[in-house]
Design a protein that fits this description.
Strand content: 25-35%
Number of strands: 6
Distance between the termini: 9 Å
Helix content: 25-40%
Shape: globular
Number of helices: 4
Length: 144
């Protein structure tokens, strides 16, 4: 089963750290949604979308990429890193229109210095940590 993860990692590299570990331990191709805006996903059996959470949404580049490049009726899994809480609604709205089948969701804390968090030196320092990365790898290995 061919898998790919389309990701965007902007501020602290939290999401990139997670997906690179997944790619090392699982057979998964990584696609940077900003650098490879028009990547062809048709040959993949399962596609992951990974992003930090910005204003309770997946990053705009992931939303745009999924809107433009995801074929209908694909198996999809979701991964997010967050300072506050996981939120999959923004991407799920697009996936519903595409009749995608969401086979799993994974979220973990990620270092965040946005807005008022900067004043206190950020939150979730050190995340994603080793345990977060192991859990992410186990999550992807368990997808069918």
């Amino acid at each position: 089963m061919r898998k790919a993860i389309v990701y965007t990692s902007v501020h602290h590299g939290n999401t990139e750290k997670l997906v690179k570990r997944i790619a090392e331990e699982c057979q998964v191709d990584l696609i940077d949604a900003i650098k490879q805006m028009n990547a062809d996903l048709d040959d993949y059996d399962m596609i992951g979308f990974a992003s930090g959470i910005y204003y309770s949404k997946f990053h705009q580049s992931i939303l745009k990429f999924s809107e433009e490049n995801l074929s209908a009726d694909k198996k999809v899994f979701l991964i997010c890193t967050y300072g506050g809480s996981a939120n999959f609604k923004s991407i799920e709205q697009i996936l519903n229109k595409k009749h995608a089948s969401v086979v799993g969701k994974f979220g973990c804390k990620g270092y965040d210095t946005f807005g008022p968090f900067k004043l206190v030196g950020g939150i979730a320092k050190g995340h994603p940590d080793e345990e977060d990365m192991k859990n992410a790898v186990d999550f992807v290995k368990g997808l069918h």
